[in-house]
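Student: Hello, beginner here. Can you help me understand the protein record under this note? Any guidance would be welcome.
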Amino acid sequence: MNNFPKYYTCLFNGVTDAIDALQKQKYGQAQMILIRAQQDAEEMYLADGDKEEEERAAAPKIIEFPR
């Protein structure tokens, strides 16, 4: 099974919950679920990008000399 990023799972679960709320005709609740899932997923995405940047900065630099 694929390992999806946390932000994808967060957003997917939010959409699933929003669909359930729509089926129950709870439109305001569905909207709030989608907004929250979007915000949470964006925060997770940005945090993952920051972590990758830190890892690249900490990695040893390879110096190539001309031949």
About this structure: The longest helix spans residues 27-58. The mean pLDDT is 88. The helical segments are 6-23, 27-58. Residues 6-58 form one domain.
